[in-house]
Amino acid sequence: MQKPIGLLCAVVFALSAAVNVQATTLDQLVHAYAEQRDFSGVVLVARDGQTIYQAAFGMAQPAWKVAVTDDSVFRIGSLSKPLTATLVMRLVEIGRIKLDETVGSYLPAAYAGTDAGKITVRQLLAHTSGLADVPSRYTDTFWSRDARRHYTPKEFASAWIPGALASEPGIWRYNNNGYYLLGMIVEAATGKSYAENMKQYIFAPAGMQDSGLFDGRTIIPKLAQGTVQADDGTRVLPSYIDPSVSYSAAGLYSTALDLVRFDSALTGGRLLSQTSQREMFANRGKGYGYGWEVEDWAVRKDTPLPVVLHTGSIPGYQSIFVRSLSDHVAIVVLDNTWQGATVVAMARDIADLVHGKPVALPRRSLQAALGPILFREGLDAMRAAYLRLGAHESTMYDVSESALNAFGYSLLRKDQREAAIQVFRWNAEAYPLSPNVHDSLAEALLASGDREGARAGYAKVLALDPGNRHATEELEKLRPTNP
Known about the structure:
about 475 residues; alpha+beta; Beta-lactamase; 2 domains; six-stranded antiparallel beta sheet; about 45% helix
């Protein structure tokens, strides 16, 4: 088994002087994220399959004070979807699955004769199926009650993937249930389990020796324990969700090095032909292909950088995997403290640095500072603490538009509506010309029952962005009706 070089926080340097300077800069950036944002996890950056930077931070087993190491294993959540999509495309190549065949033909006992049975494999891959999905917010009772049960794939589909559709096929809508059905189709088409197929067609050819399907029972060496931040600021274990609920949509585990091996195997054509990869990476709507987000990143002055990527989020873990198609740079960030905004921001900053774009070092999280105050002392205390920041606000804490927006939505998801409105108001005061901040404020006002406030907010959005479709639709819904 090939082992990555180094111990905790070790940096892997390439031989060339140019890359050596780059690695030093990356080291400063990543260490700043560890210090300012309490990042815990592994970062790996590679070019043409060769590691140019790798570092590990934090605790893999907090109770035992065991540190994260370069080869620590992490659950990767929805980062499973690109691997599932690659598996499906490989089975298409060898004739076991057809993209335009229907769910009903592969799973007739469950879906023959239903609207869901008419959905094609292609639509499942592209998130255009129209299937009903599991709730997206973890505050929903599904996650605290039903998701704690163990299901076979057939049982889960019977209970939570109905034959009736939630929307017309062809419209893009991110859908976990679609990728759950893909795992079942893989099994029906091959006569082997999803896990066996993943090992045969993806893990083994790519040399991914520390990856697999998490089942909650198998002892996984070097598995990092995921934690979440409680409302009072302490770190606790995440609420239990049975792994069977995740399956082929979000159930895999891996290491940073294994994901770089996956990247190399794709680039080298060992998993899929270039024709299949072009089809997989084609934008099918909303910047999404088959299992991959497809974007152009403005990291260079001359031309945008085409990238394919995916994030993964499951309670206790956050991940992101970015592949630049033109210069073969791969960025992997795996985290075991469920810090979504931090992980995504770090990957974007790393991409900028690797391509020569200056990056400001991260500042401390305003949410981490104010959230516990809200929990312990109430909204007035949080307001007072924000005002006390004064001149330090912009230098010590991240008070960017995106940071405040993320803070507000985290409160809204916890049904802290009044606090969320306050944060969105701070954002609107700080960035009055941004349509997005007024849109967020309007959404929070509407959630709290303030229809007049929401109407004024959406009107402000349209004043700043006359073509904003979402604001137009919301205003139409809020139009007063005659009694």
